[in-house]
Amino acid sequence: MKKLPGVGVFGTGSSARVLVPLLRAEGFTVEALWGKTEEEAKQLADEMNITFYTSRTDDVLLHQDVDLVCINIPPPLTRQISVKALGIGKNVVCEKAATSVDAFRMVTASRYYPQLMSLVGNVLRFLPAFVRMKQLIAEHYVGAVMICDARVCSGSLLSPNYGWICDELMGGGGLHTMGTYIVDLLTHLTGQKAEKMLMGGGVCSIVTLNFNMPGAFVHEVMVVGSAGRLVARGADLYGQKNSATQEELLLRDSLAVGTGLPEQGPQDVPLLYLKGMVYMVQALRQSFQGQGDRRTWDHTPVSMAASFEDGLYMQSVVDAIKRSSRSGEWEAVEVLTEEPDANQNLCEALQRNNLSTWAELNSGESEGGPRRTPPPVLIYSSDW
């Protein structure tokens, strides 16, 4: 039996803690681990029994036994490492980028090296419920698609300490953290892309993200058409034709997870995403299994995966949502086709900041002249 590629894992958070045992369960060897500090890398390496660990990026990317790189780190670092990994000749599976510009640079790198794997790890695409839902939509179970309705509810995503998830510019906030993957999933299921916050072909999509709800994690995706509807509640799929009096269970996901997983990782990752990670790693194993070279891979087992192109699209939709929120008007989804002028972007950002500051400083005018107040502070709540 051909040997699977050695894996280099970037990250020491909950996702990495879950990913390492899942990779090993499918026959992969984790050859190297990267952490943002030597201490963090050593702590997880000792816990997971990983021989080589480091806080230097190149030490992992240039490791002779690493042919597949899994990047589970804060979004601001994703572009830099993924682009460099592709340039060195490594296959890459990573999380989304922090900005559209970063996503565009990742797309550019993937186009230079089309023979290498370059996937964005939206694990929802690998869940059997959504694989089956996509098939049934293509088979016209619901008829012509009319409405997509997605709902995600959970407790706050914020931690006690300030970090990247608190900062919009670093890819933080619920809209970027989970909203991007919902946007990508709806496009994957229907084959339609958003134009002006409305899916192409006249499909209306409604996405509700609520990160102020304690209790059980809720994840529901419904697609309604002219002939019926399909709804995925968690990892189970239900459907109902217009002619039926009640819905039917179409697929129940009985996958048991947790065996061999550490205690700290799974409790921070919703069960739905845990199952998605299991299915994604299984697909990766099937993709590399039986290949003549450890860097070659079969596209078929991972055909449902999101590409770097998909990553750019989902980030572009999120950008349009943010512009629409600021302007109060419909905004077109604009996908970058060339890298923008960095100086122009800086000037626009400074101009927006100056206008906000001016409005704040002049909001308290009185007889004694304008009342100077502290500069405005943007507070990123967990409900967007």
TrEMBL record:
Gene Ontology CC: extracellular matrix
Domain GFO/IDH/MocA-like oxidoreductase: 130-196
Principal location class: secreted
Subcellular location: Secreted, Extracellular space, Extracellular matrix
One example of a Gene Ontology biological process annotation: extracellular matrix organization
Region described as Disordered: 361-384
Pfam families recorded: GFO_IDH_MocA, GFO_IDH_MocA_C3
Domain of life: Eukaryota
Domain Gfo/Idh/MocA-like oxidoreductase N-terminal: 7-109
Residues in the signal sequence: none
Keywords from the named record: Extracellular matrix, Oxidoreductase, Secreted, Signal
GO molecular function, one term: nucleotide binding
Family assignment from sequence similarity: Belongs to the Gfo/Idh/MocA family.
Protein role: Promotes matrix assembly.
Protein name listed in UniProt: Glucose-fructose oxidoreductase domain-containing protein 2
Species of the source: Phocoena sinus (Vaquita)
